Fold this protein.
Amino acid sequence: MKGECMTASNDKVLVVEDEPSLIETLDYTLRRQGYDVITATDGRKALELARIQRPDLIILDIMLPGLDGFEVCRIVRQEMNVPILMLTARTEEVDKVVGLEMGADDYMTKPFSMRELTARVKALLRRVRIDREEVAASAAIAPVVATERMVFGALVIDLSRREVTVDGAVHHLKPKEFDLLVFLARNRGIVLSRDLILERVWGWEFDGGSRTVDVHVRWLREKIERDPSDPQRLLTVRGVGYRFEG
């Protein structure tokens, strides 16, 4: 929609490009999408900014003065784990292969649409965010086990019958409501981000946004909380996601 600007993501993007008009366009487009943008026009400055600023993602042109993009990519990959999206005006398949072998996560050939680029940026950041969460929580997040029932006081989740009771009353949940409740309950006490919940409950193929999680949590609260306006089990962690208290 014309004039629409997404909510700020707080993700920091380093754009490395020596073409003035393109770097200006990238800077404007990404800021409109809510990203914090840092720019560099040569390889050595890019390395300096990457080390100081620790960006969440780097958009890196191959043809740069000083150090070229391949060398910058190689050095960055040795020093930090940050997703790298490489840009080039070349069309040779070998350049793509070399870029990926150097450690690039994705590759775009000029000219490209800004819509496609922002989609790639969003996908890369979402993927790395989930990867980091899974590494951080790997020891805590419970695996799927064949437990028949999960009991939390008056709340009972019957996995074999896909049935939930509260104070002895049966509540009929929609399939995704039940899956969401089970995932949260299995990981009680752990703060789970909306992105991680989307990936685990809905899967990567799902096109909807994090608002889907909020809506399903609201529906769940209406069914399992004694007072949905003052939830005691499905707690919101502001700016992150949700935590189930057992």
Observations:
- The longest helix spans residues 114-137.
- Residues 12-137 form a domain with the Rossmann fold fold (CATH 3.40.50.2300).
- Helices lie at 20-32, 43-53, 69-79, 93-102, 114-137, 175-186, 194-202, 211-224.
